[in-house]
Design goal:
The protein has 321 residues and is α/β, with parallel strands linked by helices. The chain has helices at 70-76, 102-116, 129-139, 157-162, 167-177, 182-189, 193-204, 213-223, 228-236, 246-251, 270-282, 296-299, 301-320; strands at residues 3-5, 30-36, 39-48, 53-56, 81-85, 121-127, 144-152, 260-265, 286-290. The protein is built from 13 helices and nine strands. α1 crosses α13 (301-320).
Length: 321
């Protein structure tokens, strides 16, 4: 178990938070037609740079989008070919009115990686994406070449705050928000800029100076796209949790199926930090500690790239020799 600690600098990163009206135009996204249970769902993705491919997965959240990975993608694309995507139900991907379940994302991730990459690929997975990546690693270790988990989580906001014994109530909330009119109104109340600011201050960003009105407006626009509420409420209520027991989460690392680096945010919420620290201390993952909370991949992309690249270069040079 290796560990590195980096110090915090509270200056706002100039590379931070690309917004829709930023002067540098983002790359055009492509579409992957994912076939599932007789339906085609269009998944948005981008590819930048050249070299060894790296897949950057966004975290799951009400405002989940590949755009949150653009800072990190920019840092890595001068050395690697960087892929980013939007999960089904989020961002620019299709947002059908489904009862979203973990099995959709497990199936999608497996199919996308198998069809788009000829060889095992490096993957960076923040938040809930970590659980899906490690589940796939246990099932098919050769699908990944190297794994980076960033501020990993496995329980949604409501189960984390209120406990697993209320999961039946959370399902009722999910069904209520999915209803027309009343559900749309309840979701609107939960995606005001004031509530988004509160969420980011509490457990997503470490430096509140980074929460500009322009940034929050862009996030609100993401959350209020047509059909966005269905996948969002599934995440918030724990409906997208890749597992429901701590034992299952810890079991993903015993034994560790492939080389894995875990990046922990120094300001992660206590429960999420505790779960990650257990893995960091009692498994063979390598660990790095950085400033930031659950959104450190978006808030501090330069520092995250600086932490990842030395490990990545060392591992890739060893694996290719």
């Amino acid at each position: 178990m290796d560990e590195i600690a980096l110090t915090q600098d509270q200056q706002i990163d100039p590379i931070l938070l690309e917004l829709p009206d930023a002067p540098t135009a983002p790359p055009p996204h492509q579409t992957y037609p994912w076939q599932w249970e007789g339906q085609t769902h269009n998944i948005a993705y981008e590819v930048t740079g050249e070299g060894e491919p790296i897949l950057l997965l966004p975290s799951f959240s009400t405002v989940s989008s590949r755009k949150e990975m653009r800072g990190l993608a920019r840092e890595l694309s001068n050395r690697y070919q960087v892929w980013t995507l939007d999960w089904l139900g989020f961002g620019d991907s299709d947002r059908p009115p489904l009862t979203y379940l973990p099995k959709y994302y497990r199936a999608f991730l497996r199919t996308f990686v198998q069809e788009m990459f000829q060889n095992p690929v490096v993957v960076v997975a923040p938040g809930h994406a970590a659980g899906y990546v490690m589940q796939l690693a246990q099932e098919q270790p050769l699908i990944w070449k190297w794994v980076v988990l960033v501020a990993p989580t496995w329980r949604g906001p409501l189960p984390t705050m209120m406990g697993d014994k209320h999961r039946s109530k959370f399902k009722t909330i999910q069904k209520l928000v999915s209803l027309p009119v009343i559900g749309q109104f309840l979701y609107w109340l939960n995606t005001t800029q004031g509530l988004l600011r509160f969420m980011y201050r509490r457990h997503v960003f470490a430096n509140t100076a980074n929460l500009s009105d322009r940034f929050l407006q862009a996030k609100q626009n993401l959350s209020r796209q047509p059909g966005a509420r269905f996948a969002s409420v599934a995440f918030v209520t724990g409906g997208l949790d890749p597992m429901q027991r701590r034992e299952d989460w810890l079991g993903l690392f015993q034994p560790l199926p492939l080389p894995t680096l875990m990046v922990l945010g120094e300001h992660m919420p206590p429960k999420s930090r505790q779960e990650a620290e257990i893995v960091a201390h009692f498994s063979s993952v390598q660990s790095v500690r950085l400033p930031g909370s659950l959104g450190l991949h978006e808030e501090y992309p330069e520092r995250l790239a600086q932490a990842i690249v030395p490990f990545l270069d060392k591992y890739l040079s060893r694996s290719s020799s």
